């Protein structure tokens, strides 16, 4: 991948690479793959490390023991509970991004980090467009066909909807 493009007037354009990560081994592998294989691109242009925090849920399930059986009841989450979950998710996201940034710094790569709350599929694609990303890199989780059909695949969604080339890194 070329490090810079040339605009019609001869001015240089930045080529940004974004790696979307979560706490999975597959996304860690994708970040390491970028550091190993796109060194020239990411040392001369911005590397963006992105994390999508899950949106807050208004419902929670609780289990009540009834002798040897359990009864599951849907209960509405209180605002305090929702806030606590959001704050915990934010702390985890910042810790994950700081770890990724430290890995990059150890390789001499200056990385920008960004986290947003929302569905990972749309949140990643929105960030790609808003930040003018030139290449999106994701790790492949390797979920089964049935689970992918029911839940959808973030990488599949991004392949079809991101406004830039998408590289899905599969862990061997």
UniProtKB/TrEMBL annotation:
> Where in the numbering of this chain does the UspA domain appear?
15-170
Q: Which domain of life is it from?
A: Eukaryota
The coiled-coil segments of this chain are: none
**Name of the protein in question:** UspA domain-containing protein
Q: Which organism is it from?
A: Salix dunnii
């Amino acid at each position: 991948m070329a490090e810079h493009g040339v605009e019609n007037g001869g001015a240089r354009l930045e080529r940004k690479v974004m790696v979307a990560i979560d706490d999975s081994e597959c996304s860690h592998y994708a970040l390491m793959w970028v550091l190993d294989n796109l060194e020239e691109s990411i040392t001369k242009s911005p590397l963006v490390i992105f994390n999508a925090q899950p949106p807050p849920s208004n419902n929670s399930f609780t289990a009540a023991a009834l002798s040897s059986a359990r009864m599951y009841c849907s209960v509405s989450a209180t605002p305090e509970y929702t806030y606590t979950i959001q704050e915990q998710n934010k702390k985890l996201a910042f810790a994950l991004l700081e770890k990724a940034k430290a890995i990059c710094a150890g390789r001499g790569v200056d990385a920008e980090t960004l986290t947003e709350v929302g569905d990972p599929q749309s949140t990643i694609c929105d960030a790609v467009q808003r930040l003018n990303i030139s290449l999106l890199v994701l790790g492949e989780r390797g979920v089964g066909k049935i689970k992918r059909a029911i839940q959808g695949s973030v990488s599949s969604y991004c392949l079809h909807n991101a406004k830039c080339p998408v590289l899905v890194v599969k862990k061997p």
